[in-house]
């Protein structure tokens, strides 16, 4: 239920204060050094640089701002400007100035420039004036995109597959009575959820009993003003304004004029409180404020839409949120991947807003907002990062969830994409994960939109084995996505988003799943956003399959970022190269984390995994050699001698052969065995433990968590200033066998795969892999090599080269480090 989800979010967050964990932009964006993500690029100005009531923007291809294509904005109270038109390729110049309400203009500031390239994805939205002109004059407006289809949908309502579910949910809502409760605001989450259920039944059946109940629930609230603490919680404030606005517009005739004024006043009070004191100028400049984007922006848009023509300020709020979405939506403004940068599990909290907002804006403006690159990739992103019946890719809060997941709202989002875009990945995903059929919050859309699911539910025949979600910094590789019961899935993260919000300190970390279950997976439990278990044993780098430097990991900050700089997708070899050299950058100075450590009398000390390191290089090459072998090659350098701690986590105990660094895990329930072997010129000390640095608080468990301890293995090398570690993993399952690895100097024979790896850290790094049977070849660090019996010279010695089949066609790919997209400084 939605109420349970919101309350659970609040509990896990420890009632995270709005804006407490979010860095603000430090400099204007975009500038010459920024590679823009989208054409047009939004213009963003830090709030601290706004010197008066308004900002005015000027944009031109003429550096003197005299050209014919010069764009001058009206003065606006916010710190963003969207040109709402595709910009010509080439260099663009922009500037801004502050303007007072009385019209006094301060001088224009510095001129900035950026480049629009031909390859920059194009997606322009209409100006707010277009949106405003086309808002329906009559109620209802919140779901106005359904109005044209409701009459037709009602004809077959009783034969619809979700009819009985709709009736059951509406009966529960009808049975609730809040009229005698002296503290009705404690029920707002439930009232809001029931409002959806009652409104759905009312729209489809037009029976008065549903409208009467909606009105009765709102009347319970009107005699009492919500207290300050209630209003300060953006979840509860958002649910309240939606409850009031939805009931107001659908049941307008049933309220007295006095009651309507009360409802309007309460809506406006909350909208004003957030806009004027907590959001304006900040939200457009914030790294990512998960609460606002999860629920609140949708609720505030809905409430503003209902009363915009009665209150000029409500129209201003509506314009702000429209521009905010077009500037930073749907996924931070710096993400075109179709996956959720904040972790696959927390996508579920955003799924309804990600469905609703483009639907509303598309209908009113006549422009398809689902043509944004993020939405065009969202079907694949949804399917690959959390496969049906599986653990998720595993890189954020809630990554350990299984228990019949993914959540049904994720299924509902995939169904939404399938109905609106025909996306084959979304269609396939929601046909396997068909839990959308019982999801109530999006049910009205399925009942009344007139949008139908595509008939073909098959996974696309050319579905890639591996996908690079470049903006978010994730790579997912699968051995057999068409056969999930025997699929080996490798996920890898090295992300420019760093560690913030619901993501973890896990740059260059990987997870490995078979048939949706963990072979190697990050450890811990999401019990609370910032309790000792979270700080020391869950979000902490030590909980992930990556590296520690002298026992020190990556701090909780967006500055602790990484990048996947290369990636190949072949039929036999899937490859990614992650660079986490900058991720080990000291301690967190984020206010929330500092307060959390203080609250529990903990320190950001080396003993707890935090502090300065002399790390200079941590580059991890990772491969899935299809169908059942993983190869990892780590390049490590530091400014002084350090201990290199290589980490691996398993749900079952490791059998460790220290002499050969052979690590075996047996998963009896799945009849699966995994064998990992480490190779290095430096001797290792291998230990394992099933004890957390801070245990989870099992007393507050609410989701049926399995608290069986997982096993954390550490292989420590050094001390040394540089190191190379080669890891070869084999998974034995469903006929794929493990074999003994035969080593000869730096050559490793693993069945039909031959791996040559330079392990001497004093020599240039190099790695080559070839298959003696299918002739696939990978090479890194060598200028000249043999491909298919022919000599090949790479463009640069440090490049990566792959010769492999892609969709059945043999081809050679070559790649050096790719340019890093820049979000600017936060």
UniProtKB/TrEMBL annotation:
Keywords: Signal. Pfam families: DUF4962 (PF16332), Hepar_II_III_C (PF07940). Residues 466-663 form the Heparinase II/III-like C-terminal domain. Residues 1-20 form the signal peptide. It is found in: Cell envelope. Its main location: other. Gene3D superfamilies: 2.70.98.70, Chondroitin AC/alginate lyase, Immunoglobulins. GO terms for cellular component: cell envelope. It comes from the Bacteria. One of its GO terms (molecular function) is lyase activity. Residues 54-432 form the Heparinase II N-terminal domain. InterPro entries: Chondroitin_lyas (IPR008929), Hepar_II_III_C (IPR012480), HepII_N (IPR032518), Ig-like_fold (IPR013783). Coiled coil: none annotated. This is Heparinase II/III-like protein. It comes from Bacteroides reticulotermitis.
């Amino acid at each position: 239920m939605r109420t349970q989800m919101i309350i659970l979010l609040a509990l896990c967050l420890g009632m995270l204060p709005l804006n407490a964990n979010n860095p603000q932009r430090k400099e204007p964006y975009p500038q010459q050094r920024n590679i823009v993500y989208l054409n047009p690029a939004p213009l963003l100005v830090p709030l601290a640089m706004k010197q008066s009531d308004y900002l005015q923007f000027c944009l031109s291809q003429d550096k003197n701002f005299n050209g014919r294509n010069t764009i001058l904005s009206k003065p606006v109270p916010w710190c963003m400007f969207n040109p709402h038109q595709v910009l010509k390729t080439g260099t663009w110049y922009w500037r801004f100035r502050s303007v007072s309400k009385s019209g006094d203009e301060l001088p224009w500031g510095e001129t900035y420039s950026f480049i629009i390239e031909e390859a920059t994805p194009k997606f322009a939205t209409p100006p707010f004036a277009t949106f405003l002109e086309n808002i329906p004059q009559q109620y209802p407006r919140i779901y106005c995109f359904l109005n044209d289809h409701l009459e037709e949908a009602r004809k077959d309502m009783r034969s619809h597959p979700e009819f009985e579910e709709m009736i059951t949910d509406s009966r529960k809502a009808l049975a609730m009575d809040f009229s005698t409760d002296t503290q009705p605001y404690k029920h707002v989450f439930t009232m809001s959820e029931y409002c959806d259920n009652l409104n759905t039944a009312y729209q489809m059946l037009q029976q008065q009993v549903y409208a009467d109940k909606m009105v009765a629930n709102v009347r319970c609230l009107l005699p009492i003003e919500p207290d300050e603490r209630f209003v300060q919680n953006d979840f509860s404030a958002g649910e309240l304004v939606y409850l009031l606005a939805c009931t107001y517009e659908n049941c307008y005739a049933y309220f007295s004029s006095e009651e309507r004024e009360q409802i309007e006043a309460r809506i406006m009070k909350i909208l004003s409180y957030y806009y004027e004191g907590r959001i304006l100028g900040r939200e457009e400049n914030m790294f990512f404020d998960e609460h606002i984007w999860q629920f609140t922006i949708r609720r505030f848009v809905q409430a503003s839409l209902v009363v915009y023509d009665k209150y000029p300020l409500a129209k201003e709020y509506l314009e702000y949120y429209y521009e905010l979405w077009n500037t930073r939506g749907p996924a931070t403004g710096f993400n075109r991947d179709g996956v959720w940068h904040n972790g696959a599990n927390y996508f579920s909290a955003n799924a309804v807003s990600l469905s609703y907002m483009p639907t509303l804006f598309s209908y009113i403006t006549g422009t398809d907002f689902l043509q944004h690159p993020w939405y065009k990739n969202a079907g694949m992103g949804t399917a690959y990062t959390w496969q049906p019946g599986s653990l998720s890719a595993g890189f954020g809060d809630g990554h350990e969830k299984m228990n019949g997941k993914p959540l049904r709202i994720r299924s509902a989002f995939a169904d939404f994409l399938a109905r609106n875009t025909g996306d084959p990945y979304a269609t396939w995903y929601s046909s396997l994960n068909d839990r959308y059929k019982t999801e109530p919050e999006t049910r009205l859309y399925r009942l009344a939109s007139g949008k139908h699911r595509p008939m073909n539910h098959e996974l696309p025949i050319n579905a890639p084995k591996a996908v690079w979600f470049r903006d978010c910094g994730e790579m997912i590789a699968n051995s057999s996505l068409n056969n999930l019961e025997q699929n080996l899935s490798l996920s890898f993260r090295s992300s420019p988003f760093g560690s913030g919000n619901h993501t973890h300190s896990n740059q260059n970390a990987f997870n490995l799943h078979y048939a949706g279950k963990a072979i190697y997976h990050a450890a811990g439990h999401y019990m609370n956003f910032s309790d000792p278990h979270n700080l020391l044993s869950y979000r902490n780098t030590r909980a992930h399959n990556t590296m520690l430097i002298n026992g020190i990991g990556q701090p909780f900050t967006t500055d602790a970022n990484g990048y996947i700089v290369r990636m190949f997708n072949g039929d036999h070899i899937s490859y990614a190269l992650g660079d986490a050299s900058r991720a080990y950058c000291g301690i967190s100075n984020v206010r929330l984390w500092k307060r959390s450590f203080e609250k529990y009398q903990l320190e950001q000390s080396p003993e707890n995994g935090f502090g300065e390191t002399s790390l200079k290089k941590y580059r991890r090459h990772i491969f899935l050699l299809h169908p059942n072998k993983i190869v990892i090659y780590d390049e490590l350098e530091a400014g002084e001698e350090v201990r290199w701690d290589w980490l691996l986590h398993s749900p079952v105990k490791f059998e460790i052969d220290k002499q050969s660094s052979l690590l075996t895990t047996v998963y009896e329930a799945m009849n699966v065995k995994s064998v990992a072997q480490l190779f290095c010129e430096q001797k290792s000390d291998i230990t394992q433990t099933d004890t957390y640095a801070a245990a989870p608080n099992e007393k507050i468990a609410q989701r049926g968590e399995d608290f069986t301890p997982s096993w954390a293995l550490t292989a420590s090398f050094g001390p040394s200033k540089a190191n190379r570690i080669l890891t070869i993993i084999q998974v034995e399952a469903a006929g794929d066998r493990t074999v003994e690895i035969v080593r000869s100097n730096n050559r490793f024979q693993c069945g039909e795969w031959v791996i040559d790896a330079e392990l001497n850290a004093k020599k240039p790094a190099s790695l080559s892999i070839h298959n003696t049977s299918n002739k696939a070849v990978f090479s890194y660090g060598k200028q000249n090599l043999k491909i298919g019996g022919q000599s090949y010279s790479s463009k640069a010695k440090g490049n990566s080269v792959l010769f492999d089949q892609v969709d059945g066609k043999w081809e050679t790919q070559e790649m050096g480090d790719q340019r890093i997209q820049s979000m600017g400084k936060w």
